[in-house]
Specification:
Structural class: alpha+beta
Number of helices: 3
Mean pLDDT: 85
Distance between the termini: 15 Å
Number of strands: 5
Number of domains: 1
Shape: globular
Order of helices and strands: EHEEEHHE
Strand order of the largest sheet: 4-3-2-1-5
Strand content: 25-35%
């Protein structure tokens, strides 16, 4: 029996993510978080969006997202000290992708 592990992608929100973020906020019955966002995707679906500025979260209420929220918080914390340096240097944000068991 072969089991496929879902691939989780954690990255900074891009302008093209606006519709998915708005849909997730509506699904979660919450306002769209403000400021720079960290997003968590799986199977082409946006499951979590975390505001790096306000630390507010929206998440898919019909999916198991507690561990994804924790991962997004860790990712945001890892980026926090370098955020301003990256912006000044014009570097692209780090992309994290891995399989979850």
């Amino acid at each position: 029996m072969t089991s496929t592990q879902p691939v989780i992608t954690i990255r900074a929100a891009a302008p093209g993510d606006a519709a998915a973020i708005a849909a997730l906020a509506q699904l979660d019955s919450a306002p769209v978080p403000r400021g720079a966002l960290v997003t968590v995707w799986s199977g082409g679906r946006l499951l979590v969006a975390l505001s790096r500025d306000e630390h507010t979260v929206i998440a898919d209420p019909f999916a198991r997202t507690k561990h994804l929220v924790a991962m997004a918080r860790e990712h945001a914390a890892d980026l926090a000290p370098r955020h301003t340096m990256r912006a000044r240097r014009g570097l692209r944000p780090r992309l994290t992708t891995f399989a979850v068991r």
